[in-house]
């Protein structure tokens, strides 16, 4: 984790600020771009007991707007990401199409590879950072650095949830 240690002071300053958590998610998306790579990053928050999720953050609001709940699907994505709390990957548009109804939109954005990084707190998957890139991109070698960004990602989620509960 030492490679990203230099980012903590700036990140913690963002955590301390009142208001929107979008700058926190922008910061984490930047770290993801630096360490793993992503053409498009979004973040979703899960309400597993209610069986729903919603987008908290996006780098492309035209394609993937923030807000609005939708049902958590019953598929391999859910079993991997929420059930087993593991990174979900699909390395081709065909593989993405198995679990994602919006696979054509993903392809139209020039993306054919996906990695979803689970955010786990207290044994519960509370959300995910969702990464899109070119076909075959999210190899085990590229994902080896996920652990470096997860403390930042988890703290961003905790700040967002706390902020919502506090009425921010």
Structural class: alpha+beta
Note the gap between the termini. 31 Å
Strand order of the largest sheet: 3-2-1-6-5-4
Name the CATH class: Alpha Beta
Q: Total helix count?
A: 7
3D structure, described in words:
By secondary structure, the chain is an alpha+beta fold. The chain has a single domain, classed as Beta-Lactamase (2-Layer Sandwich). Helices cover 40% and strands 25% of the residues. The chain contains seven helices and six strands. Strands 3-2-1-6-5-4 form a six-stranded antiparallel sheet. Strand 5 and strand 6 form a beta hairpin. Helix 2 runs antiparallel to helix 7. The chain is globular. 30% of the residues are buried.
Keywords:
6 strands, 25% strand, six-stranded antiparallel sheet, globular, Beta-Lactamase, single chain, 168 residues, alpha+beta
In short:
The protein has seven helices and six strands, in the order ααβββαβααββαα.
Furnish the topology, listing elements before pairings:
Layout: H1 8-16, H2 22-35, E1 40-47, E2 52-58, E3 67-71, H3 76-83, E4 88-90, H4 93-99, H5 103-108, E5 113-121, E6 124-133, H6 140-143, H7 146-165
Antiparallel strand pairs: 1-2, 1-6, 2-3, 4-5, 5-6
Helix pairs in contact: 2-7
């Amino acid at each position: 984790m030492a490679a990203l240690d230099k980012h903590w002071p700036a990140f913690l300053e963002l955590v301390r600020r009142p208001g929107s958590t979008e700058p926190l998610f922008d910061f984490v998306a930047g770290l993801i771009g630096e360490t793993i790579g992503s053409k498009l990053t979004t973040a979703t928050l899960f309400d597993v007991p209610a069986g729903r999720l919603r987008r908290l953050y996006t780098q492309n609001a035209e394609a993937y707007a923030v807000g609005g709940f939708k049902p958590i699907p019953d598929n391999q994505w859910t079993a991997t990401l929420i059930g087993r709390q593991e990174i979900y990957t699909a390395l081709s548009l065909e593989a993405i199409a198995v679990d994602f109804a919006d696979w054509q939109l993903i392809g139209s954005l020039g993306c054919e590879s996906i990695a979803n990084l689970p955010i786990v707190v207290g044994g519960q998957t509370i959300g995910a950072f969702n990464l899109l890139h070119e076909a075959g991109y999210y190899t085990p070698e590229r994902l080896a650095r996920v652990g470096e960004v997860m403390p930042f990602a988890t703290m961003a989620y905790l700040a967002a949830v706390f902020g919502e509960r506090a009425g921010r």
